[in-house]
Design a protein that fits this description.
With 210 residues, this protein is α+β, with helices and mostly antiparallel strands. It is built from three helices and 14 strands.
């Protein structure tokens, strides 16, 4: 895992660089409006890829924190032997896109499926949109599944950790902007959030393993 501690995520460097280069070229060509537009685009990319430092608020090894910034859209009970709850968190361009590890332990598996980036309202959203599925296990072998699915995003989902890698809660592990995140939680989990709650990665508690 290559942790990124700069104020802007490395995932945004090329977008910012291209926008600034375009602004310079348009300025040289005396195309002031296009130059201004490109410069404003660069500022938008700086904002979209901001990478703030955050202090871990929940040190209990059975506590699970949010891996993303966003709003809790729904909490569903599942009829499954493996998972009892599904928590859906929706993020947009106003939210920090940096993804953070929700528990201390290791990564069991990671699967990335490149695909479309259609609107959430599209009938093809769940089947075709780009997504990343990660299975985390804590030091007590409690497991949760995290699924990030992009909406109409200008940048692909980036995952920078590998299977079997030892992880610490709150560590950055990737980037996804304008996305929907689904958390699949087991029966021995006690939720500490409600629908419409705003959450922040690291700072917001999802709940505890019992």
């Amino acid at each position: 895992m290559k942790n990124n501690l700069f104020i802007v995520s490395k995932n945004g460097y090329k977008y910012i660089g291209y926008a600034l280069f375009a602004a310079l070229v348009f300025l040289v060509l005396d195309l002031e409006f296009l130059s201004l537009f490109a410069f404003v685009s660069a500022l938008f990319f700086v904002y979209s890829f901001r990478n703030p430092e955050r202090e871990l608020a929940f040190l209990d090894d059975k506590a699970v924190t949010s891996p993303v910034d966003g709003v809790v859209k729904s909490i569903d009970e599942l009829e499954s032997d493996e998972y009892a709850y599904k928590v859906v968190i929706e993020s947009d361009y106003r939210n920090v896109g940096v993804l953070r590890v929700p528990l201390s332990g290791h990564l069991e598996s990671v699967k990335i499926a490149r695909g479309a980036r259609t609107s959430k309202k599209s009938k093809l959203f769940h089947d075709l949109n780009e997504r990343a599925e990660l299975l985390f296990a804590d030091t007590h072998n409690n497991k949760i599944k995290v699924l990030h699915r992009l909406k109409q995003s200008f940048t692909p989902v980036a995952i920078e950790i590998f299977s079997k890698e030892t992880l610490h809660k709150g560590t950055r592990y990737g980037f996804a902007t304008n996305s929907v995140t689904e958390l699949y939680l087991p029966k021995n989990f006690r939720l500490d959030i409600k629908p419409n709650n705003e959450v922040q990665a690291v700072h917001s508690l999802i709940g505890y393993f019992t």
